[in-house]
DNA sequence: GGCCGATGCGCG
DNA sequence: AAAGCGCGCATCGGCC
């Protein structure tokens, strides 16, 4: 694949201060059995129109300037085939994802008909699972893929953007969101390098030897026997919550649920082995040998990432529990021979984002350096690091009681601007309003049920129960909007970090074929590539020879993200970064 | 035999 | 009702 020298400009080209429009847009869509590509000028005027057979799209894109932004209806519907053909796409505008942002954004004052174009509210196209290939409804439909619909929707989106209060921020968000759509497909294609032998070894270590035929692993079986002995019931069911609860009651443990946090409060010899058993049973069921056989093939774990799958803009995943891999299994994430992993996460991303977006200089000062919580202790707001942590989490989540609630007044005195930002967001939510992130992603409006509840409580004949219920639901919504602005802005920071890094990685020199990692596919087998992303953490799989350069790029990208979002506001986003063979924390 | 809500727990 | 946000998945048990 050839890389254009201008590729390194990446999303920086869409930063508010840089040139406002990319050099060219090409909208692609289907027409009959062919693909039509329409080249637009900076004002949306049509410069040319090309009709090609489907199989020629890859070469059309490969031959085009890397600065071109491709506009298409839905990235998962187009991109996997291109990557399989060896073609990387530098920049896109994903109409489906951008539609959702613009549709909901409170900063868009005149939507130009965009909100009425409901066919664009569809879920993403998903490839059918192998087992479902022969079913009639295989795969979700997705938004319209014809060229006329794409052109019309793109025109609406440009008009909506032009009428937005803060075009620079929204434009950055749309660019980053679209880059995320590419990255999600790229990470699935390249896969997360996963060593099945190490996974098997870890399972045997934790669970005990795997029995030949069915049956429970040895260590699990021993714990189960121990628990049943303590319960005095050799046939006790440990996996059915109601049955287990009754068995516990019979030996005098009058817990109301079987969850760990409640069990630990009881003194009884059954508690320890039971909790241990539950831990192992969880690992066995969620990420045991069955998971390994189903999800790891050819040394790669390939989950489906769902960009913006969470209302706040965070990513979700579908299949394989990609975002819930237990830390215990991290050592199984293992670079190919001759390759390394660059593993990086941002320490305390959300409070740092809160400091920046609220312009709270005192909190930003506490955030200088590696440990924000230590900085808070140094400021004298609270005595210990543990208290700083629960206080900050409580502020962002809306705690009202307990240790966390008790510490909030001190936090309000020391960080009034940061606290005012989250308190305001909560108040708006309680009153039924919407809130927006730093770049303009806006929270959902109230549901009909929520409004009915509030209306019922306002009636003259409302009961005390009606009022209590309305207050509770208002408070619930307040905690949601309080957290939305912080979680959502943190997701934007991470997305910009990721997008910027992607561009830097693509600009690096590839290594020779014989040092490649073929399982990563034609585009990524000879160059560093993103392999994993989890809210505030990334893993890059890289040829050993590029590892230091990648680490540098990861840091530079974080600095870029901070600058693109918050300009010169002095807040640190320190990375915990390591170059290693495995993703295990040392 | 499939659907669905509740429960519990993994991740940030 | 884990005080305090956002998810996905496995399992169970009630239901049609």
Automatic annotation (TrEMBL):
Region (Disordered) residue spans: 439-470
SUPFAM superfamilies according to UniProt: DNA/RNA polymerases
Biased composition (Low complexity): 455-465
A molecular-function term among this protein's GO annotations: exonuclease activity
Keywords: DNA replication, Exonuclease, Hydrolase, Nuclease
Domain DNA-directed DNA polymerase family A palm: 326-549
Ranges annotated as biased composition (Polar residues): 439-448
Protein name: DNA-directed DNA polymerase
Biological source species: Microbacterium rhizosphaerae
């Amino acid at each position: 694949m050839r890389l254009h020298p201008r590729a390194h400009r990446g999303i920086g080209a869409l930063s508010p201060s840089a040139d406002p429009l990319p050099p060219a847009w090409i909208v692609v869509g289907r027409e009959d059995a062919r693909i039509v590509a329409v080249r637009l000028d900076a004002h949306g005027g049509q410069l040319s129109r090309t009709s090609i057979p489907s199989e020629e799209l890859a070469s059309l894109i490969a031959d085009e300037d890397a600065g071109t932004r491709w506009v298409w209806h839905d990235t998962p519907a187009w991109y996997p085939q291109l990557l399989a053909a060896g073609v990387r796409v530098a920049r896109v505008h994903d109409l489906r994802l951008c539609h959702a942002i613009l549709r909901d954004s409170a900063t868009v004052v005149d939507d130009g008909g965009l909100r009425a174009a409901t066919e664009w509210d569809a879920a993403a196209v998903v490839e059918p699972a192998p087992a479902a290939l022969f079913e009639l409804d295989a795969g979700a439909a997705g938004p319209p893929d014809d060229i006329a619909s794409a052109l019309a929707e793109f025109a609406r989106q440009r008009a909506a953007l032009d009428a937005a209060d803060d075009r620079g921020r929204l434009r950055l968000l749309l660019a980053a969101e679209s880059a995320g759509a590419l990255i999600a497909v790229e990470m699935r294609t390249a896969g997360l390098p996963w060593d099945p032998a190490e996974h098997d070894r870890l399972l045997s270590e934790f669970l005990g030897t795997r029995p030949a035929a069915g049956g429970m692993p040895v260590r699990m079986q021993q714990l189960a026997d121990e628990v049943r002995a303590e319960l005095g019931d050799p046939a006790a069911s440990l996996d059915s919550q109601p049955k287990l609860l009754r068995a516990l009651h019979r030996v005098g443990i009058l817990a109301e649920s079987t969850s760990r946090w409640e069990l630990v409060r009881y003194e009884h010899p059954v508690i320890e082995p039971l909790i241990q058993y539950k831990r192992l049973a969880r690992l066995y069921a969620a990420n045991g040998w069955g998971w390994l056989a189903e999800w790891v093939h050819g040394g790669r774990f390939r989950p489906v990432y769902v960009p913006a799958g969470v209302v706040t803009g965070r990513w979700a995943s579908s299949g394989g529990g990609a975002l819930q891999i237990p830390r215990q299994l991290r050592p199984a994430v293992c670079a190919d021979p001759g390759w390394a992993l660059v593993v990086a996460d941002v320490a305390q991303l959300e409070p740092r984002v809160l400091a920046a977006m609220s312009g709270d200089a005192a909190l930003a000062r506490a955030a200088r350096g590696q440990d924000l919580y230590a900085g808070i202790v140094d400021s004298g707001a609270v005595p210990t690091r543990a208290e700083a942590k629960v206080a900050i989490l409580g502020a962002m989540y809306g705690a009202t009681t307990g240790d966390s609630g008790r510490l909030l007044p001190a936090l309000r005195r020391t960080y009034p601007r940061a606290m005012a930002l989250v308190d305001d967001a909560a108040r708006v939510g309680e009153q039924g309003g919407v809130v927006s992130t730093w770049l303009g992603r806006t929270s959902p409006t109230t549901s009909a049920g929520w409004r009915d509840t509030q209306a019922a409580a306002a009636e003259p004949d409302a009961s005390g129960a009606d009022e209590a219920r309305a207050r509770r639901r208002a408070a619930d919504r307040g905690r949601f909007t309080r957290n939305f602005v912080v979680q959502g802005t943190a997701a934007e920071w991470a997305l910009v970090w990721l997008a910027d890094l992607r561009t830097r990685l693509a600009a690096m020199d590839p290594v020779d074929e014989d040092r490649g990692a073929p399982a990563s596919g034609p585009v990524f087998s000879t160059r560093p590539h993103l392999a994993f992303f989890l809210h505030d953490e990334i893993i890059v799989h890289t040829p050993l020879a590029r590892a230091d350069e990648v680490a540098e790029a990861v840091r530079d990208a974080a600095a870029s993200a901070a600058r693109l979002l918050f300009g010169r506001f002095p807040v640190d986003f320190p990375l915990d970064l390591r170059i290693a063979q495995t993703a295990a924390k040392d």
